[in-house]
Amino acid sequence: MSAAPATSTPRSLATRLRTHAPQAILIALNAILFVAFYGRIGDLIVDCSREATIPWRILHGDLIYRDFNYEYGPLAPYFLALCYRLFGIRLLTLNLAGLAISSAVTILVYALSRIFLNRHLSLFAGSLFIFVFAFQFSGGPDIYNYIFPYSYSASLGVLLLLLSFCASYRFLETGRTSWLSGWSLTFALGGLTKVEFILAQVLLALLVLPFAILKARKDCRAPLRLLARWLWAFAWPAGIVLIPAGLYFAWQMDIPAYLRAEVVGMAALDRPAIRWAMGVEFLASNLQAIGNACLAYATLALLFSGADVFAQTVAKRVHSQPARRLAAQGSWVVVSAAAWLTVNWLIAFNVFAGMLVWLPLISAGALGSLWINRRKDGLSGKAVLVLCMSVVSLELLGRIVFNARPVGYGAFLLVPGTLLVLFCVFGFAPALLRRWGWQPRLYLWGFLVFFAVAGYQMFSVTLKGRHERRFPIHTARGTLKLPQDQQQALAQLMAFFRDKRDYTLLVLPEGNMINFLLDSLPATYSYAYVPPLLDTPAKEDRIIRELREKPIDYILIVTRWTTEFGFPVVGFDYAQRLKVAIETDYQSIAQFGPPPFNNQGFGMLLMERQIRLPSAEPPSVPEIGIPP
After folding, report:
1. b vs e for 550-568, b when ≥16 Cβ sit within 10 Å of the residue's Cβ?
2. Cα 265 to the center of its chain, rounded Å
């Protein structure tokens, strides 16, 4: 009798190890790739500069939106400022924060997959996220990853959205208010990230809550009392987050004026720079690319299911053992070759954006499941979750369509939709085929090869980019491995400022990471001077007044092409008035590397403020840049 507990303990331990082994593998994969790529992730100039310096300015007392411009919600900057406070102001702190977010998203991908798929396919889904999205590098600026992204608001938005999916599903299944309160907290925090994810959180709430109310009306004897409890459980966590944040910013700044000046201005599609930034000019090509992917997905589904039907028909009607073996082997080869060739035909973006062909079908299936189950044991939490993920994924996919750089942004916007595609391919469709009497072996194998090859090819591009020869630059903030031209120019610049103290530096058109590495806190309102932020005379005049009112000692012109906005060179294609103002008050004193914008590599031009009498003639200075 006493031996029973002793024998049950090892079994439970083995069960726990089996249960948590996939999560441990996924976390280990994140850690291994982090160590392998450390110092090579991120960009010296583009966007990463903002992510590194804005939390730093917050620690020095600056207020977001009032003292400096920021397009997204305040959650990410204050989260990173807290990380700086706890672990130090250095690059490693930013990278470790990214690793924590990437690992958490990976675990959530696995947890959501386990609702619909087995352990092995869920592990495959988590691995696919790591190799395709978490460490992605598809050329150009290395900013579309989760370790050092173009915006931590995007990666946190994905994390909180997946947490909302999990919490809302648990709430639908259990009806417990603790899950509802947890979902409310992630809903509120997600509302402080990016517009795309704010809208996604609102759509999720608008879909889940009515279904929960319908279920409560049927299952509960006092639905009004239960509804009041739910409303309170959802309201108080959101209020704890949103009300103090709203009151604080309303006290510190004029929120309506800021929204009029920034948010409404960024939606002005009549201005060319905004049209390029919003991807309006690329709408037709993006739609064509997604259409090609939809066609490929549909063709593969028919081909793979047809191969299963053919193989099973041969097995039943052909009695010759060699002929049956030949037909079976030929079917496996054809399916594998079709999957491989299709991936080679599509670029990686198309592979994962092709979810568009599945989402209407998944939504229709979820609605059908709801209609069937309404007369049985109540609403299905799985069906509601699939429906919600479908609508949210369509909203995020819409932002992909209106995008100048869809490949990069897909690392964040395509995650929920990719999960749905995997659920459909490996969960719903095989169940449907089995109900029709087919065994979908070739179907499953074909799509497994398809996604594995797609992930392999995309990760091959990442490996190729990450293993290009880089040269380390060592600073007090940490070590970066940069291309040779950037490393040499930055080393010369750091040598120039080695003995200088208490100076202010402005980097044009973008590159506050240089301020971060030089320990020179940015002092201007804008973190970058790219076309969307300088496309009106009023914006230029504000910056010119700021330069003359604040003691900006040095201006550094760096090679930062802004071709993605349709205006490549600052001072020539845009911001000509700003160029004249700089040439009036500043004089060039040093050049590091080749002249900026001359197609000979990365270069910097350093200009120093000139103190002179008002009647003095402005000095003659060289051109800021050379047009291409």
Report:
1. eebbbbbbbbbbbebbbbb
2. 24
The amino acid sitting at 5 is P
For 570, list phi and psi in degrees, rounded to 5. Answer: -70, 140
**φ, ψ at 474 (rounded to 5°):** -100, 125
405: amino acid identity, one letter: R
Alpha-carbon torsion, ordered 323, 325, 330, 336, to 10 deg: 170
Q: Which amino acid is at 305?
A: S
The residue among 612, 544, 605 whose CA lies nearest residue 579 is 544
Residue type, 584: T
- d(CA 144, CA 582) in angstroms, rounded, equals 33
What does DSSP say about strands 604-609 and 554-558: parallel, antiparallel, or unpaired? antiparallel
Nearest to residue 447, comparing CAs of 420, 416, 424? 424
Roughly how many angstroms between the first and final C-alpha of the chain, as a whole number?
Answer: 86
Tokens of 21: 């082994």
Pseudo-torsion of CA 386, 406, 134, 114, nearest 10°?
A: 10
State whether residue 15 is helix, strand or coil.
Answer: helix
Distance CA 520, CA 328 (A): 68
628 preceded by a cis bond (ω within 30 of 0): no
How far, in Å, CA of 547 to CA of 506, rounded?
A: 9
Distance CA 145, CA 138 (A): 10
Residue where the block lists tokens 């169940």: 431
Global pTM reads: 0.87
Q: 229-251, pLDDT tens digit by residue? A: 888 999 999 999 989 888 887 77
DSSP per-residue string spanning 300-355: HHHHHHHHHHHHHHHHHH---HHHHHHHHHHHHHHHHHHHHHHHHHS-HHHHHHGG
Q: Is the pLDDT of residue 1 over 50?
A: no
Tokens of 493: 């610049």
Please list the alpha-helical segments (H only) found in 354-404: 359-373, 381-401
- Token duo for residue 498: 């080695």
Instruction: Say which amino acid occupies 554.
Output: Y
Residue 296 identity: A
Q: Give 398-423 as a DSSP string.
A: HHHHS-S-HHHHHHHHTHHHHHHHHH
Report the SS3 class of residue 556: strand
Q: State whether the Cα torsion 596-598-599-600 is positive or negative.
A: negative
Q: What is the pLDDT of residues 89-135, one digit of tens each?
A: 999 999 999 999 999 999 999 999 999 899 999 999 999 999 989 99
Encoded tokens for 7:
């024998």
Cα separation of 330 and 280, whole Å? 46
For 150, the token pair is: 């173009």
